[in-house]
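FW: tagging you since you asked about this chain on Friday. Here's the raw sequence from the shared folder, copied in full. Didn't touch anything.
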Amino acid sequence: MPSAFQHSISRKPDASGTTFYPAGRGRTIHRLTGIFRITGPVFGGLALLALSCTLAAGCGKKVQPKSGAENRVSAVQAARVSGTRVAEPANNSQFSLGEKIPLRLERVTDTLPGIDSVQFFAGGDRQHTLHGEPFAYEWSTENLRVGTWPLRLICYYADGRKEYHDLSIVILSDITPRYLKYRLLNTWPHDPKAYTQGLVYDDGFLYEGTGQWTESSLRKTEIRTGEPVRMLNLPDDIFGEGITLLNDRIYQLTYKSQVGFVYEKETFRRIQKVYYEIEEGWGLTYDGEYLIMSDGTNRIYYMDPEYFTEVRQLEVYDDRGPVSRLNELEYIEGRIFANIYGEEEIVIIDPETGKITAKINMKGILPAKDRSRKIDVFNGIAWDPAKRILYVTGKYWPKMFEVSLEGEF
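HL: got it, structure written out here
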């Protein structure tokens, strides 16, 4: 197989007259054709020079062969060790947040040397080191996040060998979410042709992102009439998704294009195009530091607002298991409110732990008489912080609802 350098020599310049020479994974060296060109004879000379330098560097340097003992150590370290098993916990066991998780190793053979120590890792971080039998430890899950935790135990034998055990456990929420009551304050018109994907309140107006191929848009609407005062239609091949405001900018996701758009809030002029690796864009909100994004699973992603790179992930669980189909998001007073796709319910998420602290059952908020026309699922949450009221609607719903919440969340 030719070397990477030989490949670069044979490669033709592109249309700009630039020849590209690979410089290792993730990097490229650019050389302008005509300024730097390697010909066959020159390449041969360079190769000979490189070989000479290599030989010169090795001259006078005596290579010592490994001793028999060193070879035996290498062979021992390379051998697979199976001297213990994880007695507790079982792989994929479930625990509640705050529980102490027992970890215990048992020896399964006496043919191996003694164990000097055992190290315990959770989520990639070392938690504890055990010295001497019994190799048992109770790991406290207090102040952790919910979700799946990868665990690793490493046994260090007296002869230098190591043994690895990898497993996962699932931490559920330690509380059953309570249901918050709401009070309907007003009902306003909503465009029944708007497939609502994102909703944000700002300065007396609602900003709305809509979806569907050939129908996607960005809108600024008057609340009492539901009429757009400014509207931007997206290209037909773009399926619009969630939106959020950050200072004087609007961010908008797309469904499967893995691209987002940034606009001037006042003019809707597009000023930036951003890319992300998450396969699907669903909901979007902002917590004052990071953009927070959903993808229809039980995960939410914290994104850097300048570069749109992923900072961290958070899994969302209640006391029974993962809460999936997270859709539209709204950050409200230190909590993340989320629509559940296909349900007329809002869940409230603790962003520190990922556990569901409360729910709002909004089933039936759209009257039966308004369901005879073409409608889709409940979706869209906007928050007026001054009045502490929510605006909620759905995809193709003819109504927008203004509600207040009863109790703390």
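FW: The chain has three helices and 31 strands.
HL: agreed, and The chain has three domains: 4-46, 81-172, 178-406.
FW: great, closing this out.
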